[in-house]
Amino acid sequence: MRDATPRPCNVWVFCPAAGGCAGGREPRGACWLKHQPRPENPTGPADAPDNPWTSGSMAAPADVRGERGVHKRFHVVVTTNANPYQAWQVRTMHYWYLKQKAKQDPRDGQMGGFTRVLHDQPDGLMDEIPTCVVDRLDDEMGFVVLSRPNAFKQFFEKCPEIEEDYILMAEPDHLYLRPLDNLMNGRTPAAFPFFYIEPAKFPTLVRRFMGDVTITDADLAAMDPIGSSPVFIHKDDLRKIAPTWHDVTVKIKRDPEANKEWGWVLEMYGYTIASWLSGVRHDLRPKLQAQPPWDKSVSDFYILHFTYGNDYDLDGTFTPGKMGKWRFDKRTWTQGAPENNLTRPPAGMDNELVRFLVDAVNEASASLPHWDDPTGMKRLGGKPAGQGLRRKDTASVSSGRPRAGGRRGGGGGAASASTPRTTTAATGDELTGQIIVPNAKRTKRPEIWHSPHARRQRVLFLLLLRGLVAKCSRTRDRHDAMLSPRRMNRGGVDDIAGDGSTSADLNDEAPLPERLAADARTRDVFNANILPRLDSGDLAVLAT
User: Fold this and answer.
1) Which of 385, 423, 367, 381 is nearest to 125 (CA)?
2) Angle at 400 between CA 395 and CA 405, to 5 degrees
3) CA gap 347, 366 in Å, rounded
4) Rounded distance, CA 158 to CA 397, Å?
5) Fewer beta carbons within 10 angstroms: which end of the chain, N or C?
6) Predicted confidence band at 370 (pLDDT cuts at 50, 70, 90)?
7) pLDDT tens, residue by residue, 112-145
8) Residue 450 — pLDDT band, cuts 50, 70, 90?
9) Is the dihedral of CA 417, 418, 419, 424 positive or negative?
């Protein structure tokens, strides 16, 4: 429904810079009135390095401090898969969570338990980080974040009930700058606003996923400009949102227009839409999270989100959009952890948050054992850890501690968040619903790789990992060929590579081992490093 009602001005911006603002298009002294849906809590970068504007609101500021007291104690829930890229990040995150928790008020501190929801096979971090294993989405459609809503949905279906009433939804690339306070007032969730989540900019798309719910333009403007993290929320509200969040996000991914328009933030739009459909609104907390390099000072932020690349010249000059002589970008370490003792930023660099980030990673790498083995799989000989794992054809088991009431109709008292617990609920070929608490007594781990699905996952992971360098090399050669005047012959033979391989050699109908071995660039890697590790069962699975 279109709404032609004019929106009142309720915030202002002013240019105090001698040289003007907006590249000189706005003179010094320029002042504009604007509209924000929530003027009592306006959003925008606090200290962006290239933003000379100052601003203010005509509304009385909202109370963003939240309520103090142990009744608002919260449990951190972070979702990950088992790859090295997310493993080193979540290890660093958990290290800093424990460090800041140790600093909080021992009586009234609000930082409670911590659970990693692992939507993957069990890994080697079970002894370090409390973990609940759930199913990975059957079809992620090339977008691993699609498993995140599904993981939260299963958190309420398969994981032991947490002691705390409140949850902080988190991601692995979070560092804690200080002991965290729950920033909720009453039952209303509190979330960090993202400037690039703009439901009102996409009225047709948003309405497409609203089902039978009618939404006006004013409603679109009032929708929460947030993602699913960081968010403080009552667990019962998240329990209500999670199934809808999962369903909406999958629909968005399958919609060509929405998938193209929202891309890597589609899961965030899924959460925003699902929250609206579930009748849950969020208060905005711009100071909940800092995002360097656009934010510069620690100030009164609680969380450092290191999602962006940080590039600087050696004299400390910020170089946005250009790879700096000094840089920190988490994507540099997709296949393993950062090296120990990373080079600190140049002395002339004025971003306090970037300096904290590098020091924080260095401290974690120096303090955590086996830093160069982020998933812990080397320590386990390539096999996953776990307590009380069971095959899918066995009944669900637990450590004997009953679940809290309200979960699938189950009764019993609430389990303590600090008590070692193990619960397994298996579905399909996955091992799910187990929570592993560090230092808990271990039972002998049975072999879990018998199912074809699990075996296929292991083999495909090994193939992808071992073949990555070779495949990248070949892709780079073909890219160079397209950019150069050298020709590709009529038969599709790559004259640049000079190996005589053709696209026909990689027929998708052939078994995977044959497809890889047919490529001369990967043949040596495959024969030397992969084939000896495969048994007859592995080859039989791959041949199907």
Assistant:
1) 385
2) 90
3) 22
4) 11
5) C
6) very high
7) 999 999 999 999 998 899 999 999 999 999 899 9
8) very low
9) positive
